[in-house]
Amino acid sequence: MNGALDDIGTSRTILEIQDKIDAGDAVVLTATEICARIRAGEMIGLEDVDVVTTATRGIMSGTYAVLSFKVSESDSFVKASEVLLNGVPAVVGPCPNERLGVLDLIVLGTAHSEFDPNYGGGHLFREMVEGKTIKVDVTTSEGKHFSVETWLSEIPYAKLHATRHTFKNYRAFVNPGKESIKTIFHALPFEGEFKEMTFCGCGELNPIENDPRLETIGIGTRVLINGADGFVTGAGTRSAPDNPNLTGFADMHDMTPEYMGGFVTSAGPEIINTWAVPIPILHEGMLENILKLDKEIPLKLVDLAGRIPLCEITYGDVWDNADLNIKYDPGKCINCMDCLVIEACPMGAVRRGETGAVHQPELCFNCGLCILRCRGEAFSANLGSVRCAIGGCFRDIKVTLRQSDRARAIIAAEELKEKILTGRFRLTEPVEKISWRE
Q1: Band of the pLDDT at 270, cuts 50, 70, 90?
Q2: pLDDT tens-digit map of 131-140
Q3: Buried-exposed string 379-390: b where 16+ CB fall within 10 A, e elsewhere
Q4: Three-state DSSP class for 8?
Q5: Strands 393-402 and 197-199: what pairing?
Q6: Is residue 344 part of a domain?
Q7: 161: number of Cβ within 10 Å
Q8: What is the largest CA-CA distance in the chain?
Q9: pLDDT tens digit string along 346-391?
């Protein structure tokens, strides 16, 4: 494939592909399915696929929610000056809503609770989507304080916005120094002297890896954000032509809690999101990237402290032969009094039961941190290791934590495929191409 359109006869439009879907004649494959066919030795041409569904799930710091809801009767206070939601601070405004008893709030996904250092915006948003009760503490402009309880179903306006999501690819991190470092790229202090590695990115599943020229992803493209219909609004912060990312939004009322969550790092809580994006195949040249496997997608290994590139590996080095799901064997649990897994799990997916640890798969991010922490070896998965030359010396560095959950990204891509084929999700033409300011 040369990435160029061979002739006008081989091109098609998004509208034509949607018509083919409506007629029941379209071939829709997930990125996992099409890559499996390539690994099996199949040759894939334009006639073999119409749409590829892609997805990524990971820590996406650039997230905020916009909420608007009533907390009291009109004229009971002039306006709010400070608001906490389950202890998480909100930015009040921009609309003052004077004497209306209504709050307009912006809540950052990385905001931290004032009462619980392991609770943040990501936890709050998931609990809202789960339908849990949210405590709202209000300080008024007159200095009065009051509290109310609410639920997402009572919040008429609740939109989740992305300022920087779905990077084309991200980074792998090591700490070459002697001292451990507290960082958002590890749930524990990051050990030094190349003892461990963490990484982000879903490789061949990633939406922009499959459409790096943004030929079908543009302003107005319909996507799924945390399972809810949403739209791309443009390029995200720090986006660049060689490593683009996206902004977008979706309604929180329609989201799926298992795609969301808070992730506690050694530098405080972060936020998890999931995107699923359809890539209509408009011409033969687009298959050049659609058919790329993990081993063909570069991944820079960098120094955590200064982001200095140390060597280049591929996503094949971290995903090929790795176990996507963490396995738990309760029969091996030795019921430690001080369970290191419960203490360290960044998702709170492990709790103490009557006879030992209880693993909650619906909360698990498959990061793998539990494997080395469990004294009884009740948790298992092959996270793999990477061999690379750094400073003229070959090093074997074990992966100890993943900040992308490929297992659930696969599920998100499958869900999008099913929605497309059943008519519950329709492809949209971008209203404008995404561009960057130089």
Answers
A1: very high
A2: 999 999 999 9
A3: bbbebbebebee
A4: helix
A5: parallel
A6: yes
A7: 19
A8: 71
A9: 999 999 998 899 999 999 999 999 999 999 999 999 999 999 988 8
Rounded distance between C-alpha atoms, residue 172 and residue 300, angstroms: 6
Residue 4 burial class via C-beta count within 10 angstroms: exposed 0-12, middle 13-18, buried 19 and up: exposed
Structure-block tokens of residue 402: 């993943």
Q: Look up the CATH number of the domain holding residue 346.
A: 3.30.70.20
Q: What is the CA radius of gyration of the chain?
A: 23
Token code pair at residue 58: 């990971």
| Total domains, the chain | 1
Measured distance between the N- and C-terminal CA atoms of the chain, rounded to whole angstroms: 29
Name, in order, each residue with C-beta under 8 angstroms of 353's C-beta and a sequence gap of 6 or more: none
Tokens representing residue 414 in the block: 């499958």
Residue at 341 is within a domain: yes
Q: Over the range 96-122, which residues count as b (16 or more CB within 10 Å of their CB) and which as e?
A: ebeebbbbbbebbbbbbbeeeeebbbb
| Nearest-angstrom CA–CA distance, 93 and 104 | 5
Structural domain including 336 reads 327-380
Q: Would 362 be classed as within a structural domain?
A: yes
Helix (H, G, I), strand (E, B) or coil at 330: helix
Q: What is the three-state SS of 279-313?
A: EECCCHHHHHHHCCCHHHCEEEEEECCCCCEEEEE
Specify if 403 maps to a domain. no
Beta bridge partners of 220: none
**C-alpha closest to that of 384 among 245, 261, 262, 203:** 203
Q: Look up residue 30 and give its DSSP letter.
A: E
Give the predicted TM-score (pTM) of the model.
Answer: 0.95
